[in-house]
Amino acid sequence: MKYFNRNQTKKINVGGVIIGGGSPIAVQSMINTDKADWKAAVKQIRELQEAGCEIVRMSLPDLETAQNVARIKKQIKIPLVADIHFDYRIALEAIKQGIDKLRLNPGNIGGKENVQAVVREAKNAHIPIRIGVNAGSLKSAHTLKNNFARAKELVKAAMEHVKILEDLSFKDIVVSLKASDIATTVEAYKLFASKRNYPLHLGITEAGSTFNGNIKSAAGLGIMLYDGFGDTIRVSLTANPVEEVRSAYALLQSLELKSSGIEFISCPTCSRCQIDLIKIVGQVEKEAAKIKDLKKLDKPLKVAMMGCIVNGPGEAKTADFGLAGGKGEGVLFKDGKILKKVKEKDWVKTILSLIDMKIKGR
Ligand code: SF4
C-alpha cells in the first residue's frame, strides 16, 4: 500500500478507530433513516458496516432521538457520531448514552456555560469533537464570489470554534471545512492545515446524485488526498449511504490509499471486442459487491477482464487472474500463466469462483 507524504496530524481515538497521525484514512457515512425509528437506524448502520464503513454519523435533532443512542450502539460494531446543532442538552444526553464522537460547532450550541458543560463531559468520557464548518450555513462565505476569500471565511469560522475548545483545554478535535465547490474546499483545508494539526475529515458537501456526486467528490477529494490531506473521508451523495461507502473505497483504492478487496481492470471495449464485456463486467462487479469476506484478503486482488488480445493478455498476465477475450470465448490467465479457454457464458461464474477460492486460501 502506497502512502503519499501525508500531512502530519494529531492522533485521535474515535471509539476505538484511530484517525490522524498517519493512520489509514477512515471511511465515514451518515444514516438517513427516520429519526424516531431506531430499529431502522440499526439496520442501515449494519448495512454500512457490512460495506466497510468505519465510522457512522447520525443526526440527533432532538432529545428523544438522542435517547436512542445506547440501544443503537448495543447492536452495531462501528463508532457512532452524533450530529448536533443548537441545543447543548442533546450533546449531554448523547454523551450520557455512550456516543463515540460529537459533531457540533461550540459557537452554536448556546452560551458559555452550556459549552463548558458539554466540553467537561466530553473530556471525562474521552469523546472527540468534530467542528464542521459548512459554507452553505455561513452567511459571510456564500455572499463572496472569490474562492480564496470564501475559503478564508470558512477557516476563520472554524478557528473561532477551535479557539472556544482550546480555551477550555480541549484538544481532541477533528475539523471539516466543506463547501459545494472544489476550489473553496481545497483552499480551506490547505489554509487550515497551515494553522493547526488537528485531523481533517474531508468531504465535498452537497455534491449531488450518485453520478455527479461521485465525479465531483473524486475530483475534489482526489486533489486533497494526493496532496496528503485527509484523515477521514465521506463521499456525500444524494443516494443510499451504502453507495457513499462503496465510492469512498473505490476512490481510496484508485489512489492506493486503501483496499476494497478487489481491483477490477477492464478495457473500455472497441470494435475489436467480440464478447459482451460491458454486461460481463457489470455482472461481476454487482456479484462481487455482495461478497462479505473480501477483507480477509491481505492485499487487493487484481482481476482483469479485457476485450481482446491487443491489450488483454498483457493486463491479464499482470493481474492475479484475468480473461482476455476472443470470439465468444477468452483465455484465462492466472498468476501470469495461461490456464485454459473459457466460453463467454462462463466468464462471470469462473471469475467469481476464482475470487472465492482466493478468499478461502485455496
Ligand atoms: S483490449 Fe481490445 S477490445 Fe478492449 S479496448 Fe483494447 S483493443 Fe479494444
Q: What is the number of strand segments?
A: 15
Radius of gyration: 23 Å
| SSE order, one letter for each helix or strand | EEEHEHHEHEHEHHEHEHEHEHEHEEEH
CATH superfamily of the largest domain: Dihydropteroate synthase-like
Question: Could you name the ranges where pLDDT drops below 50 across 5 or more consecutive residues?
Answer: none
Ligands, deduplicated: iron/sulfur cluster
Structural class: alpha/beta
Mean pLDDT: 92
Question: Count of helices?
Answer: 13
The coarse overall form would be: elongated
CATH architecture of the largest domain: Alpha-Beta Barrel
Name the strands of the widest sheet in spatial order: 8-7-6-5-4-3-10-9
What's this entry about, in short?
This protein has 362 residues and is α/β, with parallel strands linked by helices. The protein has 13 helices and 15 strands. The strands form 3 sheets. It has an 8-stranded parallel sheet with strand order 8-7-6-5-4-3-10-9.
